[in-house]
Amino acid sequence: MKEDPTTMFRKIGKKTISDFIESANIINSNASISKVLGILIKMNNYNVYYKNGNKITAINLTDILSARDFNAQKLNSIAKITPTIAEDSNIEEAASIMSHYRLRSIPVIEDGEIIGQISTKSIVKSMEDTDIKIPSTKIMTGNLISIHETDPISTAKNIMIRHRIDHIPIIEDNLKGIVTSFDIAKIILTSDNIDNISYGRPKSKRPLDLPAKGIAERNVTTSSINDSVAKVIQLMNSTNSTYSIVTLGDEIQGIITHRDIISLLGQKIEEDVPVYIIGLPDDSFSSELAKTKFNTLIKFLKKTLPDLEEARCRIKLISVRGKTKRYEVDVRIFTTTNKYNYTNGGLDLATIFDQLRDSLKRKLSQKSQKRQKQSTRYNI
């Protein structure tokens, strides 16, 4: 008897990420943008990381494409604080974070240090032997943004930055090719081109003003609208591709990327338990990060405390010194029989929530061990 998709996804999602960890590219914060770009292309990777105090910062290809001056501009002008994940977390949590933030990878942290990363590619690779009968149309992104062969490379670059995408098909009467963020990165890094992009050469001769057809990949990975997700996964893995254009005859219907596939594994927080969070930061990224971390904590509690009735979180900004902010986070957990209060403070919200979760794990583990000892004593 074959497993239904829900059971299959749940089994994959419960796997710990320790078996999926890849090496991460960790750089010096003083490195130039052009050097980082060279590292990404050489390693065929999309992200690099560096520590900024207690925070983990990420730079990806799209961030680099948005840079105005590849020689003089500082890394911190394009870098972004990134969500992180612990080594003992599972695939479901990783998939949820990457889907929510539209990320290809996230760093794995142990004792505040980066020990590797987990990527959408590694997760999709592990799904190759699954028999996912779901139609590919259920996860594809339709209404694709496309360009023409004669459009300049700069047009594709600007579209990628504006819409946070990495693949743009070239369409005339039919599909002529595809331009990826890696294709644009390579033309930027070509000999002498970094100087020519910003200055030093007449506009008509700048590399990014050349027609997009000059860098387009002609051997496009395509799948049929009738294909299952399982078949698309096998195709993408066999071609080492990060996408598949979905077609119906000669007509393009949409695109499937690694992020679309792992979205099947991410589990939304159920709303059967009242959850309240107040005092969210004004910064949208920090706000979403806090909500994600708290929701992850609630999922853990649901498994450990079946009588969980309500959860509350209060975030308080204690002090501000220049760009440094200090927070205090107070979490209150209510069950049918007990109330748990946990308070922690610090400069980084993600670290605060991770520490709160670790504290809860230890407390609940000690409580469970105590119950087991009592049970053993009574049975003697």
Keywords:
single chain, 380 residues, alpha+beta, CBS-domain, Double Stranded RNA Binding Domain, 3 domains, four-stranded mixed sheet, 12 helices, 15 strands, 25% strand, globular, disordered C terminus
How would you characterize this protein structure?
The structure is a single chain. It is globular and about 65 Å long. It is 36% helix and 25% strand. The chain has twelve helices and 15 strands. It has three domains: 5-119, CBS-domain (Roll); 136-262, CBS-domain (Roll), CATH 3.10.580.10; 275-379, Double Stranded RNA Binding Domain. By secondary structure, the chain is an alpha+beta fold. The strands form five sheets. A four-stranded mixed beta sheet has the order 12-13-14-15, with helices on one face.
In short:
The chain is of the alpha+beta class and 380 residues long. Helices cover 36% and strands 25% of the residues.
Structural class: alpha+beta
Provide the gyration radius in Å.
24 Å
The backbone outline, from C-alpha atoms, is globular
Quickly name the level 1 CATH class of the largest domain: Alpha Beta
Give the spatial strand order of the biggest sheet.
12-13-14-15
Question: What is the average per-residue confidence, as pLDDT, rounded to a whole number?
Answer: 82
Fraction in helix: 25-40%
> Would you count the extended β strands for me?
15
Low-confidence stretches: 196-201, 371-380
CATH architecture field of the largest domain = Roll
CATH superfamily of the largest domain: CBS-domain
Describe the main β-sheet briefly.
4 strands, mixed
- Number of helical regions: 12
